[in-house]
Amino acid sequence: MKKTIPLTLIFIAGLLGVISFVIPHPSYQVYDEWIRNDLLRVLSAFAVVLALGSLLRVHFDKIKRKRKNWQFSWLLLIAFGGSAVVGLFGGVAADGVLPTAVGSFQFDIQTLYENIVIPLASSMFALLAFFMASAAYRAFRVRSMEATLLLVAAFIVMVGVLPMGYSISKHLPGFVQWILNVPNVAGQRGIVFGIALGVVATSLKIILGIERAWLGGGE
Amino acid sequence: MKLYERLMTIDRRIIYGILLGVVTLPLIFPSVVKVTPMSPVEKLFTAVDNTTNDKALILDCSYSPQIKAEVEPMAIAVLRHAFKTRKKILVLSLYVEMIGLATRAINQVVEEFNSNAQTYEDSLIYGRDYVFLGWQPPPIVPMLGMGESISNIYVVDYYGNQTDTLQMMERIRNYNDISILVALSGSRIPISWVAYAQNRYGLAVGVGCTAVSGADFYPYYQTGQFTGLMVGMKGAAEYEELVEANYGVKGRRVASEAMLSLTYAHLAIILFIVIGNIGFFLHRRRK
Amino acid sequence: MNISTDPWIWISSILSLAILSFLYKENPFFRAAEHIFLGVANGYLVTFYWHRILMPILFRPLFQQGQLLLIIPFTIGILYLTRFIPRISWLVRIPIAIYMGYWTGVLIPATIQAQIIKQVQGTVLTSANFQSWNAGAWGIVWSVIVFIGVLCTLSYFYFSREHKGVIGVTSRVGIVFVMIGFGAAFGYTVMARISLLIGKLQFLLGDWLGIIR
């Protein structure tokens, strides 16, 4: 029962998904819209509750057991609690019951997002430029014909795609566009076919119950 | 230490320092760099330009804070273009962590326009000229659902208004009333728009993506599934150039300002790779 | 130089520097910033799920407008929380099965249409494809190159036979196209990563320190 019911459900739900695309008839669309608009939307919201519950449990557990770096978990919980209170009671557009400004100092949820989430996330990715430069210098070696081709194509794109491409030759940007439009498309398209066939095969395996990793461990 | 050893073992701090220098100096001492638009960006610009009065444009701001630097200038350029030419525009995000960036872009451009507006007609009025639909999960719901009814999916907009009570939404009901959707993203979302909304409802999809996805997206541009394509900061700079050249819209051009830094940084990376390989060849020859 | 007096700009900048300090090595400032990020990002998420999904889509219609059909998604959704009750935790598989099943079901025809049929149409040698390049007679040449390139690339990824003879030749040609594609992707990736660094510096040097405009 613990496996049969979920496997039957995934088969039925998968079939409904396929049918919705193959038979776009209005009489069926009513049901399809209900599945998408009501069922899937609500399920996605509860999935977030599960994810959040897991995150908080991990950090409470870390504090309780005083695991390595447990002090930082307090920071996470305080930041989460503070921003959730501001968002839930202060409203999405600072329209809630909780005041979200003291004088000219605002602390509504959008302000927190713009001044904490954005700078932190963008800084994490800004680091990648340094690591990429260092890795390219250390690891990019012309050992074979394939590596040479890759390097030449990369250099042409790096130079030709920028304004300096025109300074070198007025034909260079056009040549870069040709590389992207013709040989690049041929190579990428072969990969697109491979990915698409892989997606279809995996989806079929999931719906037909051949792929069961999503059931997780246990009975 | 032999020459080839020196060439192959430059300290990472030197590499970081050089990179930081070549990126920073052109920002502090800027000079004008002429950006020439390429055809994929021109096609996108034309498609947005061709939106007729009876139709609206959807701007999907599904880019995360991590890639803000690359994609936000695209959102601002497209919004400036659409507002300047008085297109009706709907803005949305497909993921919750991205909706704050859409809010930021809209607030910035609306403020730019309204600070220069002389009359009520000139001003950008919420509900009349643009609607911020906000976000509804999971992405498949708006992608397919808006083909039937936009206000059924976005029952309330970002600000909590009932969407069907907004003036603009009286005429904009579903994809039949949309000329093009411009998907700005750092992931495979534009392909999902094609797979769901275009296949089923024939929606035209234009794309602005991070440079990481650029080469992967060309097969979809070549088939016409993507009406136009803006790739990375350079693509954003090209769109900024088109908006200013065609409509004289003045405003800070963040992507264009970055072109010189980008140029020097590319040259530095090429140099690093060349130096590493010279060391590698000398080493191989000795062996 | 015109340093910002906005306290939020200072907070953003200090948090940014804490993350960038990872370049030196992992340190407590980086770890603190990382945890603050996770906390605030999840607080933001909760806000929107409550105000824009659960309230207008579920609770208000169900409890205020009496749309009783919503009891079904509500009940199935609640099953997600059984994950925290070991004795009945298997019930979490029910909402996952419905969600994942429908999604994968829709994905199959959509993928076949968008990524296989349309891509094949863009590859075959037809007059429409020749003209789509807007390059006159060269359009035929470009289409032929794409056609040959796609076939050869596919043959490179065909591992059911040894790459000898005809397949050996086509797979060698295929790898040329793949490598050009990867090269273009690498070139663009460099641009992407540098752009993100520029964005960060534009903020630190401009909005914070006021060194640049």
Structural description of this entry:
The complex is a heterotrimer of chains A (about 220), B (about 290) and C (about 210). By secondary structure, chain A is mainly α. Chain A is about 75% helix and about 0% strand. Among the domains of chain A are: about 60 residues, no CATH class; about 70 residues, no CATH class. Chain A starts with a helix and ends in a 12-residue tail after the last helix. The relative contact order of chain A is 0.06. In chain B, about 55% of the residues lie in helices and about 15% in strands. Chain B has a six-stranded parallel sheet with strand order 3-2-1-4-5-6, sandwiched between helices. In chain B, helix 2 packs antiparallel against helix 12, helix 4 crosses helix 5 and helix 4 runs parallel beside helix 10. The mean pLDDT of chain B is about 95. Chain C is an all-alpha fold and about 210 residues long. Chain C has a domain of about 80 residues. Chain C contains seven helices and no strands. The chains are: A mainly alpha (about 220), B alpha/beta (about 290), C mainly alpha (about 210). Chains in contact: A-B, A-C, B-C. Chains A and C meet through helix 1, helix 2, helix 3, helix 4 and helix 5 of A and helix 1, helix 2, helix 3, helix 4 and helix 6 of C.
The greatest inter-chain interface is formed by: A-C, 128 and 114 residues
What percent strand of chain B?
A: 5-15%
**Low-pLDDT sequence parts of chain C:** none
Count of discrete alpha- or pi-helical segments spanning 4 or more residues of chain C: 7
Strand content of chain C: under 5%
Average predicted local confidence, pLDDT of chain B: 95
What is the ordering of alpha helices and beta strands of chain C? HHHHHHH
Instruction: Please report the distance between the alpha carbons of the first and last residues of chain B.
Output: 16 Å
Radius of gyration of chain B: 22 Å
Counted by DSSP, the helix tally of chain B is 12
Tell me the quaternary state: heterotrimer
- Main sheet properties of chain B: 6 strands, parallel
Which structural category fits the helices and strands of chain C? mainly alpha
What's the CATH topology label of chain B? Rossmann fold
Any idea of the CATH class of chain B?
Answer: Alpha Beta
Strand order of the largest sheet of chain B: 3-2-1-4-5-6
Tally the beta strands of chain B.
6
Give the SSE order of chain B as H and E letters.
HHHEHEHEHHEHEHEHHH
